[in-house]
Specification:
Blueprint: H1 10-25, H2 32-39, H3 44-49, H4 53-76, H5 82-97, H6 101-116, H7 118-135, H8 141-160, H9 167-178
Helix pairs in contact: 1-2, 1-4, 1-6, 4-5, 4-7, 5-8, 5-9, 6-7, 7-8, 8-9
Length: 192
């Protein structure tokens, strides 16, 4: 095991270990000692890198939210037409819902914390704003808000359903939300 001076990735290992433990045991099951053991770092590293367990958890969940936003960006960045953007949203929903149980659990643990604690609510609000901003490159603001909720909801439903709906239903839901209403397009013609 490397010392602090020769271990530039120690902080990242601690954060990854925290997320792994949260996925396995829930937030209530984590402690400095368990995280340090999982990350294979001295217990003192915990207080060197973080002011306490709450700071560590908030930073770990912030990194997780960044990961999900990067998935949004990856899927949406190549779309140049409304149809491509719709397809990208459907792809994103399937990527998220068919991902690991770890990601599903981490998302739900974060939502539970956000329901009870302001810093996590703020984190979720920033996450939603970032996701909607990426969607707004392709859709108007109201549609982006609706799509963001659809992504969250369908991802959860598909991940927990014993027989999840197929891609056709996902595509239909995305199309219904993004279809023009009263002759007004809900999708931008080209990304800004």
């Amino acid at each position: 095991m490397a010392t602090g001076h020769t271990d530039p990735h120690r902080r990242e290992r601690i954060l990854a270990a925290a997320l792994d433990l949260i996925a396995e045991e829930g937030v209530a099951g984590v402690s400095h000692r368990k995280i340090a053991a999982r990350a294979q770092v001295p217990l003192g590293s915990m207080t060197y890198h973080f002011t306490g367990i709450e700071d560590l958890l908030l930073q770990a969940f912030t990194g997780y939210a960044d990961h999900v936003v990067a998935l949004f960006e990856h899927h949406l960045s190549g779309a140049t037409t409304p149809d491509q953007a719709r397809e990208a949203v459907a792809d994103l929903i399937h990527t998220l819902s068919e991902g690991t149980r770890r990601d599903l659990i981490l998302t739900q643990e974060l939502y539970t914390l956000a329901a009870r604690h302001e810093p996590y609510r703020d984190l979720c609000a920033r996450w939603m704003r970032r996701s909607r901003t990426l969607l707004e490159h392709h859709f108007d603001a109201a549609t982006a808000r609706q799509l963001d909720a659809l992504v969250e909801g369908l991802t959860l439903h598909r991940a927990l359903d014993d027989t999840p709906p197929d891609r056709a239903l996902t595509h239909e839901a995305v199309t219904r939300i993004t279809a023009p209403r009263d002759g007004v397009p809900r999708a931008r013609r080209t990304p800004p």
